[in-house]
Design a protein that fits this description.
Layout: E1 2-6, H1 10-22, E2 26-30, H2 33-42, E3 47-51, E4 53-54, E5 57-58, H3 59-68, E6 75-79, H4 84-92, E7 97-100, H5 105-120, E8 126-129, E9 132-135, E10 140-143, E11 146-148, H6 152-162, H7 171-178, H8 188-200, E12 206-211, E13 215-220
Parallel strand pairs: 1-2, 1-3, 3-6, 6-7
Antiparallel strand pairs: 4-5, 8-9, 9-10, 10-11, 12-13
Helix pairs in contact: 2-3, 6-8
Length: about 220
Amino acid sequence: MKYLLVEDNQELANAICSRMKLDGHVIDHADKIQDAIAYAETGEYDLVLLDIMLPDGDGRSFLKHQRDQEKDTPIIVLTARSQVSDRISILDLGADDYVTKPFDHAELQARCRAVLRRKAGATQPVLQFGDVAFNQLAGQLTVKGEVINLRNRELRLFELLLNARGQIFSKQKLVDRLFSYDEDVSENAVEVYIGRLRKHLEDTSLNITTHRGLGYRLDND
């Protein structure tokens, strides 16, 4: 998954980014509202982690801006405010959830998973497609009863394609979703990961098809 973190506390931001990257996620970091808006307008994210108190204003203005633009990217607000009225106003503006500071990173990761499951409409942690099973909580792929240990980038690519079955992704779009802005990679990297996934999915009900000049799509036979 690709996350956008909007947080001006550098120590906290570094800690969140490190934990999310260890979990295999791609994450971009903005410490101001205007930078966050620029990121959101030029990139595509699965989830936004949003602080409220920022140097150039209230983070709720970013939340309102996103919802006014009819963008439905899930947003979890990180707030030090514990008053019920504050939490209600955050949810009423369109936030999907909130976490009160200070928080445990394990709780934040669990909240992220829960919000993403709701967005995908998935109520069960394990998705089954014939002889292929994917545990969304554990990030574990099982093929014909055998657990496949995917590398982080392979796992996120599979997760991306799986959650949008039937949708064609261009190489450039996959680069945008799998890598952060500060990573200098070519579209050839996508071909490598696609090739690895195809080997894991050989002779199963899932296959990655190439659409010449357009990109790749995951199909379920």
